[in-house]
Hints:
Two copies of one chain form a homodimer. The first copy, chain A, is an alpha+beta fold. Chain A has twelve helices and nine strands. The first copy, chain A, has a single domain (4-321), classed as oxygen-dependent coproporphyrinogen oxidase (3-Layer(aba) Sandwich). Chain A has helices at 4-9, 26-37, 49-52, 56-61, 68-84, 95-98, 185-193, 197-205, 218-223, 240-265, 275-304, 307-321, and strands at 13-14, 99-101, 107-115, 122-134, 137-148, 156-165, 168-176, 210-214, 229-234. In chain A, strand 3 (107-115) and strand 4 form a beta hairpin. In chain A, helix 8 (197-205) runs antiparallel to helix 10 (240-265).
Amino acid sequence: MLGPEHHLRSPPATTPGSLRSSISFPGSRRLFRLPRAAPPLRGKTSGSVLASAPGVAAASRAPEPELAHREMARELAYHAEARLGARLLPSAVPAEVAEFRNGAGNAVGSLDVRRGSPGSTIDFMLQSSLHCKVPNGAIDITSLLIFLNASTDAPHFLMELIQGNPTSIVVILDLLPRKDLALHPEYIEKYYENTQLDRQREKIEELPQARPYRSQSLFVRSACSPTAILVSIDCGQGGGSIMDEVLRGQLATAAKELLQIWLDTCADHTSKMEEGEREYMIKRDQMVRSKSIEVDLTSNLPRMFDPDVSSRVIAEIRKAFGVQEA
Amino acid sequence: MLGPEHHLRSPPATTPGSLRSSISFPGSRRLFRLPRAAPPLRGKTSGSVLASAPGVAAASRAPEPELAHREMARELAYHAEARLGARLLPSAVPAEVAEFRNGAGNAVGSLDVRRGSPGSTIDFMLQSSLHCKVPNGAIDITSLLIFLNASTDAPHFLMELIQGNPTSIVVILDLLPRKDLALHPEYIEKYYENTQLDRQREKIEELPQARPYRSQSLFVRSACSPTAILVSIDCGQGGGSIMDEVLRGQLATAAKELLQIWLDTCADHTSKMEEGEREYMIKRDQMVRSKSIEVDLTSNLPRMFDPDVSSRVIAEIRKAFGVQEA
């Protein structure tokens, strides 16, 4: 929940800047302009110009398309579910939120939330995916979040994949810290140094197709860990098969490694904390959750989906996150 | 005080990784190896092999060489001093620390510390520069730090320039946050968004010679702001004149802008804080100061200078930072 906003607003800011011009992200740019120029994404159930365009009609019938990145996220989720077992309660998302569509037929999404069972360290596991046709292609956003509750100060698991076209994707993959790292070097050591997380980041950033990705939100940058994988992977024109290879190869490997590290060192771990320390952490967690919903979903879902649909989805995510509307 | 350690240990880690091999940083690598293979840097006052080598003899007589980066730092410091005026007390550094040398004649350094006057927001302004000959060249490190006291929560000013050869330099330029940014979006807004600091970062990262620089210390990465300029600028073989242009041009401009923003929005600013908040900030500040001395000076100065010299210098910096030996 830390990424899509930028892609809906503008092409990703990357560094070094000299490479910026080589990055194409047409989906996001067009999606941003579309709702402002005309409201084709809202409340058009039939007969719209868009709905009659080839591809859009198909999207209104078809489920979300199969993508290598989505498959990768699903495999990760399976693995997490298998390991967490009974610590996850069954899904409690109403049917109309489990899968949802835009009336105009150009956007489809799914959301699944499983709460942690009482006594476990798990707060919730959230999987979501969004697919939205835009004039020149589609934008696909897939998220996998496993958040812990206040019985532990261990980091949350977070993965977001934002694909603007078949040859480029933004990857946000992190164990999201729950403490002020500049005050807690022991926390850095325990969760980030001893686990050698930085190696995973290095491996991905070494890919010739990878460029650093900077969120436009300074808050998002501040919330991530110093080992976060924040990259834009661009395989260039005709690079669809390279993209698939990277996704199924190096990226899938890094994501699995991160999840495994998280499962081994964070998921089972309760923490002794002084009451003040726990209170601080809860306050911090709430801020990170609220802000990420604010900069991300509440400003963008309404651009993709009819207002009633996006409200229902956002309400369900707020419920999972345990934050009220501001 | 957030940078040199990496350069003394290994070449800078840069991203994207594919570019790594193009970055040369011979000075640092050699400097790292030198003290382990043989102790030529320590306690040789005369007659050593090194001292008889051309250049080294010159260094033992000569002051630190004039470098574009050093000139740039000095201009910045003048500007800060002019603006801060009587808020800075006269320099209180003993002569043997104001300028110091290695007995072997291959290293020379200077340190100046001016405390803030009573009632001002300034804690101290510190300027330091180190020059150390290594077999194939020299390493030059220049720092300018202006730290605020606990009457304000405004960020500190920090600049470090680490030049391993005439054509490459690492730049660390930041307004160092004093609050946990993930809990304080209003702090991000006030000091980092409203001041449009990110534009300065972007301008530097857009330089074709710039590559992102990642400190090997996760703590250092965590202590920096999300708009920190952390780059390695490499002008390639024979690029000495380009380096000078960049230093005197874009880099000097960005550094001046940052300093101006800091002078305008941070230096005069006292903050109302609840007592708990202030205590937290003081604790955090102490940690950042201690850790930066630990990962940086205490492990590296003794490699460049005789033990008695480095102890004196470190003691003086500890005094400025207000932190005791761990």
